[in-house]
């Protein structure tokens, strides 16, 4: 046969590989006419060289096969009913031998390599399975070929695509592509990958924008496919299929895929073949997942040194040489070379035309050849051990015997990678991610830009050099493919009911919550000591805030407290200085001193509310306020009762006179104070005041304040104080018109009226205020009520003592009354 490659050996390995495809090659029209319009597939030429490299390496290895050499025959195969079976029949049974009727083998072939197409492997495998002839398929793993009942002697070298869906989805997540179209072939592999992609995308909330499953017949309808792709709103398209299933689709892909689409593909696409049909620049950018493999040492140097003169029986190499270096060849089987450069090398060819580094298919062929060599080696050792082997040159191993040793064979190839046939035990593959650089136009260079490894921890499986990815010529920015615009910082995603999972609205974060990234599912709440900025993108530390002495309000209140306390002390000094006068004596001198001293402490206790709260100051605030004001109010009550008893006791022998003389009103102060002390003691024993924080009243601040502890105890103490004030007001009001000399009942009435008014106003204002204002309201109420007592009770007396001294005696008072009476008469 003319179209074959051959190397002599004791045991032959047959390769059934499609080496040509139909097409029109405008750049080599003369050669195309000579070869009946068939195009040589350069990629598959490397497969033949990979087979030659592996066999030569094994033949040079003294530890394998022991003087038995391997050879190969490679035949072209066409995709039609007759020619697909013609070459396998001839190479296995001889040109004129009929299967089942010939006892003489027509060939010393012991195994067959088929691929890369699964269709060819399937149809040829049906024939080879009848004779249990070992078949190695080096194309992509096909689950349909794993049926051992249908293909009892077929071994798939390639690993399963168990991680391809996870690998592609990880790439989508890396670029935040959540709106993706799917295009697969209508076969078992396409259906399985489509289902895996849908499950994996659903897990990661990536939506399928459109989905199309095409058969070979559908591929001819490129108008429908064009309509499907170009009308899709998704900018990213995942295409999974093999070269043969989508052959027609590839021919029309220039019209189908327009600018703006990113294509994520699997490694079964033959881009070197597709370049023969159109310029790849029509694609926006293809990202290709191909099985990762370690470079085999020496292969690149082997390819660089290859020449047709070294392999004169390799017609495919001769054809490759002629097309690449413009040589003249003969149409006969004996090829002569007249115009080729003597130092020509395949390394001269551009990488987009012929890659000298080992391809995935060549690597699988390399492993397949070593599998045959390992099985042959074990067979020879076994025959030697049982002494059943005669002259190996005369009696060569049979394919049936080899099949027995291949069934459970697994081994490590020379570069240390494990090879096994059991589909359940096959290792998950790692993937290289390739990007085709087409700038400048026509470069079409495959560049590795990333890797996916299922063996690394989740989240670190994908490694990608994003700066190496070449997008379209028009832009350098990463394309976007989302069904909803991203939510920026400060917003969270809110799913839209009844729509796809990736459809969402952007909702602003609530108060004191932030979103510092894009497309966040939930906003993060700031801690109590932090607050969200106005854009809801960052938590900032709150500034500690309290009613400090240096604050304007605190400074005013502190000055008022000191001024009132000094004023009260001055009034006390005036009373001490004039203690022997009638007006001082007539109003119960001792009670006046007690009231003035208690008012001084009332004013000073307001200072406890200023400054940074501490546990001690929080307790002292309420206890001091309650006890001291109780002393003050009970003193007013005692003064009022004294006035009433003084008027009622004018008649000798009455009980009221006895109460006045015995000093009974003086017991009001300790009794009332003791009750308040008891209430405060219960307060401290059950739920005392403590230091608390308020993070909500003032934006950006955390207010440090005193918590009352038990509100019930607080209002009991305050209510008791109000009860005393009400009693004092009532008694004073009833005694306001008693006709007694130096009667101060009116002044006591006014003082209690002011006191009660202040604290009745305090309650609603206190509850409506927050933070520092609440503290300021309480301090102001203390100062206002104390000032009311001081002013209403002692201002008239000081006026008389300092400005009207002539009235500060009983005689003067009577003269005043007598003059008024004469005036009226």
From TrEMBL:
Keyword Glycoprotein found: yes
Main location per the UniProt record: membrane
Cellular compartments annotated: Cell membrane
Membrane topology, record value: Multi-pass membrane protein
Domain annotation G-protein coupled receptors family 3 profile: ranges: 553-817
InterPro entries according to UniProt: ANF_lig-bd_rcpt, GPCR_3, GPCR_3_9-Cys_dom, GPCR_3_9-Cys_sf, GPCR_3_C, GPCR_3_Ca_sens_rcpt-rel, GPCR_3_vmron_rcpt_2, Peripla_BP_I
Signal peptide start and end residues: none
One MF term in the entry's GO annotations: G protein-coupled receptor activity
Keywords: Cell membrane, G-protein coupled receptor, Glycoprotein, Membrane, Receptor, Signal, Transducer, Transmembrane, Transmembrane helix
Transmembrane segments: 555-578, 590-611, 623-647, 659-684, 712-735, 747-767, 773-795
GO CC, alphabetical: plasma membrane
One Pfam family this sequence matches: 7tm_3
Keyword Transport on entry: no
Entry coiled-coil feature ranges: none
Gene3D superfamilies assigned: 3.40.50.2300, GPCR, family 3, nine cysteines domain
Stated family: Belongs to the G-protein coupled receptor 3 family.
Name this polypeptide is given: Vomeronasal type-2 receptor 116-like
Species the sequence originates in: Dipodomys ordii
Upper lineage: Eukaryota, Metazoa, Chordata, Craniata, Vertebrata
Name of the coding gene: LOC106000694
